Amino acid sequence: MQELVIRRPDDWHLHLRDGGMLRGVIADTSRHFARAIIMPNLVPPVVTSADASAYRERILAATPADHSFEPLMTLYLTEGTDPHDVEAGFKSGLVKAVKLYPAGATTNSSSGVRDIEKAMPVLERMAEIGAPLCVHGEVTTADVDIFDREAVFIEKVLDPLRRRLPELRVTMEHVTTKDGIDYIKASKANLAGSITTHHLIINRNAILVGGIKPHYYCLPVAKRETHRLALRAAAVSADRRFFLGTDSAPHADPLKECACGCAGIYTSINTLSCLAHVFEEEGALDRLEAFTSLNGPAWYGLAANEEKITLRKQQEPVRYPAKIETEAGPVTVFDPMFPLYWAVV
Ligand SMILES: NC(=O)N[C@@H](CC(=O)O)C(=O)O
Ligand SMILES: [Zn+2]
Ligand SMILES: [Zn+2]
Questions:
Q1: If pLDDT is split at 50, 70 and 90, which confidence band does 106 have?
Q2: Pocket test for ligand 1, best of 25, 173, 219 (most atoms within 8 A of CB)
Q3: What stretches of 133-178 adopt beta strand conformation (E)?
Q4: How far is the CA of 232 from the centre of ligand 1 (A)?
Q5: Domain ranges of the chain
Q6: How many CB atoms lie under 10 A from the CB of residue 100?
Q7: Contact in structure between 176 and 199 (CB atoms under 8 Å)
Q8: Mapping DSSP to helix (H, G, I), strand (E, B) and coil, where does residue 13 land?
Q9: Percent of the chain scoring above 70 in pLDDT
Q10: Where along this sequence does the record place binding of Zn(2+) 1 (predicted)?
Q11: Which of 235, 250, 279, 303 is deepest in the core (most CB within 10 A)?
């Protein structure tokens, strides 16, 4: 196959940041994607509906006038989140989901939830009204190995929560393990998972072999090859419970290339080329559309985009910059370590 026409994709997990970084990265998403679930982990975080509404306006103001792009807003769950505000935001259509960050799990998560009991009134209300909970599914206690954080989160936090509130709709975001895939596949209802572009391509060797490679460091951290293979099998399966969330997470290079580098990989600009490559390798180009454009909207109760995009396989490798320049500094682009031939035309 040399050409593929699919419905315009959406990104179900995206970090756009704010200010100069937002202005520098937004077009790389809005060029190809119609909508994206926008992560609320700004400093300070997007906690209330009013915060989300103001952030949405800033995103729209930064979007190039000739791009049509709809930011789908989320609220950052804190132990003080007001159930009434969540309900009002969700019912108005502004808020599409609420995000659970276990405190300390990842970039800008210090206001996250320490004690899930304190968030129960909000979670109960969300279960009642059908508002999805997006979770960064990792425990953060020092006794758990970083490579086991996701599996332990499922056992100790997620499964008990879902048993207690079976009506709560949960998106397990950026699934990185076979444990996560198997847990989602075993579920009967109200659970889905997003998978990033980079976790389909790299395993933990990318970070550690031949020198430490900060631009392959993200959270949840890439795991062993067996896990990557399980993610790939799920992504290309067309199972409605799995869809794309790039987790494209820009950090200016000096914040990654240092003694305590930030977690996050920037993939917005070449994600579709990478995904077409992966799906072609798996003999599953006919299922790319389900992953990028159909399963996500179905889960979030939205119509799939009507507009189409065309991917075409080029003779020469696709050219994309190694870094983008932003007002907040240069941001290194994800290097899949192989040439890409599929381009959005
Ligand atoms: N994925 C990452 O490595 N980083 C994200 C946070 C997150 O999604 O956990 C970020 O905000 O930089
Ligand atoms: Zn996360
Ligand atoms: Zn993220």
A1: confident
A2: 219
A3: 133-135, 170-172
A4: 21
A5: 3-344
A6: 27
A7: yes
A8: strand
A9: 100
A10: 13, 15, 99, 247
A11: 235
Spatial contact of 34 and 305, defined as CB atoms under 8 Å apart? yes
| Complex confidence, ipTM | 0.98
pLDDT digits (tens, 9 = 90+) for 144-203: 999 999 999 999 999 999 999 999 999 999 999 999 999 999 999 999 999 999 999 999
How many residues does this entry show for the chain?
345
Q: Provide the pLDDT for residue 105.
A: 87
Q: Radius of gyration over alpha carbons of the chain, in Å?
A: 19
3-state class of 296 per DSSP? helix
Closest Cα to atom 8, ligand 1: which residue?
A: 247
- DSSP assigned state of 248: B
Let me know: does 108 contact 17? Beta carbons within 8 Å.
no
Q: Which of 106, 140, 262 best tests ligand 1's pocket when mutated (most atoms within 8 Å of CB)?
A: 106
Q: Specify whether the CB–CB gap between 97 and 133 falls below 8 A.
A: yes
Burial 178-200 (b: 16+ CB within 10 A, else e): bbbbebbeebeebbbbbbbbbbb
The residue with tokens 């003999």 is 283
| CATH annotation of 3-344 | 3.20.20.140
* Catalytic annotation, pick one of 10, 179, 239, 247: 247
Phi and psi for 41 in degrees, rounded to 5?
Answer: -85, 55
Cβ of 264 closer than 6 Å to ligand 1, yes or no, is yes
- The crossing angle, in degrees rounded to 10, of helices 83-91 and 49-62 is 40
The backbone torsions φ and ψ at residue 320, rounded to the nearest 5 degrees and listed phi first, read: -145, 155
The answer to whether 18 is a known catalytic residue is no
Average predicted confidence (pLDDT) for the chain: 97
End-to-end CA distance of the chain: 15
Q: Give, in order, the Cα–Cα distances in Å from 320 to each of 3, 21, 37, 317, 340.
A: 20, 19, 24, 9, 10
Name 141's Cβ contacts closer than 8 Å, sequence gap at least 6: none
Cα 244 to middle of ligand 2, angstroms: 14
